[in-house]
Design brief:
The protein is mostly helical. It contains 14 helices and five strands.
Length: 329
């Protein structure tokens, strides 16, 4: 029985943060042992918001792929490639644009949200409006059975299913499968200042941070503002450090909570414990990354090989699609 396919991708924004690791990468690594995985550097998607300044695109791609490999993505198990190296993505996207109603694109929840969040950019472009359709083309080009996503991305997968249904109806076929959303349980982490972890806030911990950088950032973390003295009872619910203990110190988190509430542990000591657990968790990734930083030619080669494998599937898909829509005599 043929192994089921999973497709996913990320826009290349440079070095990844812990939210990317916990929210996507760790799950991708596990999926490699169960599915045939195809992971794309979504560089065309990056252009939807960075079309006016693509100067950092190449280096951002390199840094992101290094993080992928450091976390455990394996080119022997998965196809890893850059979207722009497989032109069939654009072909299928163009074809889908011929029959997709504008109302479908305008109702995608993240469309208006992104416009609000990126007010400084001119996003009144077809590329930005059509990026969910490009996502659908990305997924369906490989006839993926499943797409790992968080709950906020489920509408994108549902739209992909609608596109598949519309194509199959118009051309009287069952060629495209309707991919399922593989819901990823995301472990949410706040930034070191207690707000949402975001590069724009400058409050992230990156996967590539050294043990010294991690210690420095943990020591900057916001704790319970109502706790003045070390012996004061604390409230872990409002403490950023405790939120990290819940993820990176699961076996000791009950003891930390109890000691905090009783005033038996100070914030400095609590942070020291977190630094130890966080560094132990990230050390294998950090050490692997140091090696990969010096192997850029290897990374370029694996992306080219991944593009070759992806293109083989993509060309086969488009040959059949062209026949179905009547392009082939």
């Amino acid at each position: 029985m043929e192994q089921k396919r999973v497709f996913s991708g990320m826009r290349p924004t440079g070095r990844l943060q812990l939210g990317n690791l916990l929210g996507a990468l760790e799950n991708w690594v596990k999926l490699q042992d169960e599915y045939k995985c195809i992971f794309s550097v979504a560089d065309w998607h990056a252009m939807t918001t960075s079309y006016d300044d693509p100067s950092e695109l190449k280096e951002n791609t390199m840094q992101m792929v290094i993080d992928w490999l450091s976390a455990g993505l394996d080119p022997e198990k998965s196809i890893i490639f850059c979207q722009s190296d497989v032109k069939e993505h654009a072909e299928l996207h163009l074809l889908f644009s011929m029959f997709t109603p504008l109302s479908w694109l305008e109702r995608v929840p993240t469309y208006k949200d992104q416009i609000q969040q990126l007010r400084e950019k001119n996003l009144a472009t077809y590329g930005f409006l059509g990026y969910p359709l490009l996502q659908a083309a990305d997924i369906l080009l490989y006839r993926a059975d499943a797409v790992p996503v968080g709950e906020d991305q489920v509408p994108h997968v549902e739209m992909t299913r609608e596109i598949a249904r519309r194509f199959n109806y118009l051309y009287q076929t069952d060629f495209f499968p309707e991919p399922q959303a593989l819901l990823t349980k995301i472990k949410l982490l706040p930034g070191i200042d207690g707000r949402k972890m975001s590069k724009s806030y400058g409050n992230t911990i990156e996967m590539s941070d050294s043990p010294q950088e991690i210690a420095k950032k943990v020591n900057q973390m916001v704790t319970d503002p109502g706790r003045i003295r070390k012996t004061d009872p604390g409230n872990p619910e409002v403490c950023t450090v405790f939120a990290f203990h819940q993820v990176f110190n699961p076996e000791g988190v009950e003891g930390v909570e109890r000691a905090c509430r009783r005033g038996e542990i100070g914030c400095v000591q609590c942070k020291k414990q977190l630094i130890k657990h966080l560094n132990a968790y990230l050390e294998p990734i950090y050490e692997k990354r140091k090696v990969l930083e010096g192997q850029r030619d290897y990374i370029i080669d694996l992306l080219r090989e991944g593009a070759k494998q992806a293109k083989e599937i993509a060309v086969n898909t488009m040959e059949q699609v062209f026949a179905l829509v009547g392009f082939k005599l």
